[in-house]
Each structure stands twice: as C-alpha cells, then as structure tokens.
Amino acid sequence: MTITNVGFLGPNATFTAQAVSALFPSRDNKPYRTIPACIDAVENGEVDVAVVPIENTIEGTVNLTIDYLIHEKQLKIVGEVIIPIKQHLMVHPENSNDWERIDGIYSHPHAIAQCHKFLYNSFPNIQPIEASSTGAAAKFVGEHPNQKLAAIANSFAAEEYGLTIVRHDIHDFNNNHTRFVVLHKEMLDLDIKRDNTGNKTTLMVTLPSDQAGALHQVLSVFAWRKLNLSKIESRPMKTGLGNYFFLIDIEQKMDDILIPSAIAELEALGSGVTVLGSYPYYRI
User: Fold this and answer.
1) In the structure, what pLDDT confidence band is assigned to residue 212 with cuts at 50, 70 and 90?
2) What residues does each domain of the chain span?
3) Least C-beta-crowded within 10 Å: which of 6, 52, 53, 275?
4) Measured in Å, how far apart are the chain's first and last C-alpha atoms?
5) Are 153 and 9 in contact (CB under 8 A)?
6) Burial of 242 (0-12, 13-18, 19+ CB in 10 A)
7) What are phi and psi of 235, to 5 degrees?
C-alpha cells in the first residue's frame, strides 16, 4: 500500500513531526491536537497512518497511547522510529534580554519531567504549565509576546514559531530518546526509503489465572525458543484491581515457526494473545 497522508501529534515542529519527516518526508502530513485524535483519524479513514509517541528513555511508556490502542481502537503497529530528544528553553525575541525573569513555562508533561533538574535549580518558584505538545507550547508563547513566557521544545519549534533559544540542552540526561510507532488499520509493509535497524513483534498477553508461576510459564515459552524479549510491561486491564495484561516486544519479525508456535503454546496454557504488530524499526 502506498502511504499518501500521515497524521501526527501536532502542531508543526513537534518531536512527532520530526519522526514523521524521518520516515515520510514527501507525504501529506496532517497535525492533530491529541494522541487519541491521531488514532481516531486512522480509524475514520482521514489518514492512511498515524505516528504517535509510545515510550521515552526518561519518562517511560506513554500510557495514553497504550491505553487508547488497547481499550478504544485496535489498530496495528506497522513501524517504529527512535529519535534523540533535545529540549531547549525558548522565549519570544522581545523577552530574550530578561528571560531569567519569566513568569510562566509551557511544555508537554513529559518534556517538563525530562527537564526537572534545570527547572528546579533555575526556576524553583514557577510551576510549569502543561500543553498538549512541545510544539503547541512554543506556538502559544510565540502568539503572546506581551507576556513573559517561555516554552520547552526543540530547535525546529523555535524556528517555526519565531522564538529565541536562551538555554540549550536543558534535559536532565543526554541519552534521551523517544520511540514513535506508526499505526494502521491492518498489517502492511511500509515503503520507506531507508534501511531499518531491526524488526520487532509486539504481543498483548493476558495470564490464564492469578496463580503462582503464571508469568514464569509465559516467559518460559519464549526462553526455551531463544526468542529475545526487548521489553515486557504490565498495564491494568481496567476491569478491577490486580487485573493486568502484558505487552511483550520480541526482537524478531513474525516467522512461520517460532513465534506462531510460541503463541499456540501460550493459548494452550490458557493465556489470551493478541498480535499488535510485526514491523521494522528505525533509529535516527
């Protein structure tokens, strides 16, 4: 299938937009205000695929993405891209000379958390204000030059919205990356003009019952087949306390024998298994 339009968490110059540009540089890209809106756009046929964040090195899983995928819209993961995250403090040019006297700081909750040390040391009396994205924060600051505001965002946002970066690289850790997934209604092979870093298969697994050793049984299914798991994470089923499902990433593309036989064994043990996707991933 040829991808002609891509939905992403907007506005322009977000980190998600950067991920989209890396994979789909010549497509018609459409920004949406929230992650659920991006996912709904695929479900409704407004766009062919959507690109949304799913995990950050510092802040971990983007729970909104996982929960909306599992509980609301069952789309398939057809690709993944990992990009480095560099956060900067930026203000309107009119406020660049006295930026240390700003009254408010806007950004996405994850970006705020990624810059905790800087904010604590430099602006201990300012409570950052959450925005739907780093790009939205930069856009808001650019539209209000009469207010002493700052945004935490990337360099593309500063350029896009005419802001001045007054402090570079304010994130707490240098090895800061975010994983973004490409979502579609069905499994498909993406036509991307770059070499992929590797392949993954992602499963959602529910345990057969609340009994001792149930998770050990599940993991043993992969261990004796020498299927390498790059991630396993539990999330609440939202059906009651103590009820969880597990997201499992296998560092291998879906094959004809190993993964299907692992799924069959899991189901024989009484586990529920859903294949969320088998896809290439790219590291930028």
Assistant:
1) confident
2) 5-84+176-184, 88-167, 198-283
3) 275
4) 24
5) no
6) exposed
7) -135, 145
Closest CA to 77 of 193, 195, 179, 222: 179
The CATH number fitting domain 88-167, selected from 1.25.40.10, 3.40.190.10, 3.40.50.970, 3.30.470.10: 3.40.190.10
Lowest mean pLDDT among 1-5, 35-39, 64-68, 146-150: 1-5
Strand duo 5-9 + 28-32: pairing: parallel
**pLDDT over 70 for what percent of the chain?**
99
Q: pTM score, two decimals? A: 0.87
Whether the Cβ atoms of residue 272 and residue 205 lie closer than 8 Å to each other: yes
**Angle between helical axes of 214-223 and 258-268 (0-180°, round to 10):** 160
What was the pLDDT predicted at 210?
Answer: 65
